[in-house]
């Protein structure tokens, strides 16, 4: 008798977690590990948001809420979508979930039947491929080009579309690359979505982290037709340094939101009531604090790029958004450290952690093996020390 469901057996545990676990183990032995692994802002949740959470407890907002979220929060999200993205969503077109990850997973469960195909451009955020498997849908990976900052094109999408395609996943600004899709690039994707009458799940969780002259555009804002086929995902985790609070949301047509509400009503009830009040304060409060965090990320981004420029064995994709640099390590493959060959991103990440005490995320976790991801959601001091160690280590390989 099989005690664990096949679809769960088919899910792979995250490789990124394995490296994090190893880094933590070294730290617990007193080893000074510098980590470039962070997938969350290193800033504390802003004071005004924490205060709203505390007040929610004191005022007794500690009971069940409506399944799709409290009305004032949905109103604030609706206002935000109009102000920032030029999008009009009524309250029954919005659902609040326990983090953007939960929003995406619920959306996939709401629209996918077993066997439906979900197109995932590679490299991709680790959870997409596994979340697709919960409703027994099938991840279909499509390769993208480094020259195009790994943004998926119309031609690439058309090469993998089949009658079974149900959803295309896009992520802008992207993790792990930090690429930001332009209006033209989104228009091309929208054409594919409209021609095939499928959904696009647009993960916009890094919306606020865009640099230089780049501007975040939501694919839903291109026209009414594409808006109707978009499931827009966003949340508070990254913009407001609220990862542990677990608050995300989706905006889509009424049918999709109603279906997501049905799942949520039975599976989760609703996100934590206290978190919802804190999230409301986050959206309604002074946004200058968000800008100051972004300014700090930008400073670190510049520093990291300057340092990487001078390291011959490493190439990188210039990051336009999010808080990661995707670094090409192809030149290291085939080389050796002591007697160990380095032939994969996992080899490199393991040796770097053991020998230089620097933790990075191997690209294989994102579906591409000749890259590593460095996060700059850590202090400038640690970035400097971590890069010093990487530079020193690379001089020792031959
Ligand atoms: N989408 C992407 C691309 C992410 O990188 C992350 C978090 O790392 C999420 C979604 C999930 O965010 P949340 O903490 O709101 O679930």
UniProtKB/TrEMBL annotation:
The record's InterPro entries line, in alphabetical order, gives: Aminotransferase_I/II_large (IPR004839), AspAT/PAT-like (IPR050596), NHTrfase_class1_PyrdxlP-BS (IPR004838), PyrdxlP-dep_Trfase (IPR015424), PyrdxlP-dep_Trfase_major (IPR015421), PyrdxlP-dep_Trfase_small (IPR015422)
Aminotransferase class I/classII large domain ranges (all copies): 32-390
What processes does the entry annotate via GO biological process terms? Answer: amino acid metabolic process
> What would be an example GO MF term here?
transaminase activity
Cofactor(s) the record lists: pyridoxal 5'-phosphate
Please indicate which superkingdom the organism of origin belongs to: Bacteria
At the top of the EC hierarchy, this enzyme's class is: transferase
Q: What is the E.C. number? A: 2.6.1.-
Q: Report whether Translocase shows up as a keyword of the record.
A: no
Protein family (similarity comment): Belongs to the class-I pyridoxal-phosphate-dependent aminotransferase family.
Q: Which UniProt keywords apply?
A: Aminotransferase, Pyridoxal phosphate, Transferase
Any Pfam family matching the protein: Aminotran_1_2
Q: What is this protein called?
A: Aminotransferase
